[in-house]
Amino acid sequence: MNWFTPRADPRATFKTPITVEDVLNSRMIAYSFRLLQCCLVTDGGGALILVAAERARDFPQGLLLAANRGPVYLLGTGESVETPMVSQMEDFTSSRAFRVAGAKAFAEAGITHNDVDHLMIYDAFAHLPIYGLEDLGFVPRGEAGAFIAERNTAPGGKLPLNTNGGGLSYMHSGMYGMYALQESVRQMRGTAPAQIPGAKISVCHGVGGMFAASGTIIMTNEGP
């Protein structure tokens, strides 16, 4: 469920909050996924500028420091591939690629889960945030559903999730990972429509290859 539209992000495709009833009343696509549990099909594009931290400080005010916001820094990264096909996954309720990529990124960043203020999980389908919350280590196995239902991932919750509306409500042009990254950047720069006050660390997690591959990037707005 997306808690952030319609008021928060004017660019979201779905500007009316999606309810449980909406999902259950939408047509079946492939059991057990209904239409509103599948990502949107849209056109779109995006870009980010990546440079060394030393170079970022040299950029002119008008280009880099829009709205008087500074650059965003990468704390840690991780990537992994579990299998070439979803049918070969070790466990259909958990992604080994998620677990490996997330652990590598957190180790490189030198942070704990309690340090994270904001989370983006590529939601090509509705089950991926559940995988992400559990396999990245934010909640124990089997507890992600209740964690979301208790509004921990909603605005004002302990772990705001997919604050642009995600692939289920914002947009999905086939390479949604770019837009998840952009939302993490906006949150760290303080320019997101659904801005999380005081957010200093954002985790952005992507998936590809029929759930077989994943990557995790941890960002901060506090310079080295």
- Give the number of DSSP strands: 6
Total number of helical segments? 8
Overall pLDDT level: 89
**Uncertain parts:** 1-6, 61-68
* Helix-strand string: HEEHHEHEHHHHEE
Structural class: alpha+beta
What is the percentage of strand-forming residues?
15-25%
Helix amount:
25-40%
Distance between the termini: 36 Å
Strand order of the largest sheet: 3-6-5-4
User: Largest beta sheet, briefly?
Assistant: 4 strands, mixed
Overall geometry: globular
**Rg over C-alpha atoms, rounded to the nearest angstrom:** 17 Å
Describe this entry's structure for a reader.
The protein is an alpha+beta fold and 224 residues long. The chain is built from eight helices and six strands, in the order αββααβαβααααββ. The chain has helices at residues 20-25, 53-56, 61-64, 96-109, 128-135, 144-149, 166-169, 177-189; strands spanning 28-30, 33-34, 73-81, 118-121, 201-208, 213-220. Strands 3-6-5-4 form a four-stranded mixed beta sheet, sandwiched between helices. The longest helix has 14 residues, at 96-109. It is globular. The N and C termini lie far apart (36 Å). Mean pLDDT is 89; it is low at 1-6 and 61-68.
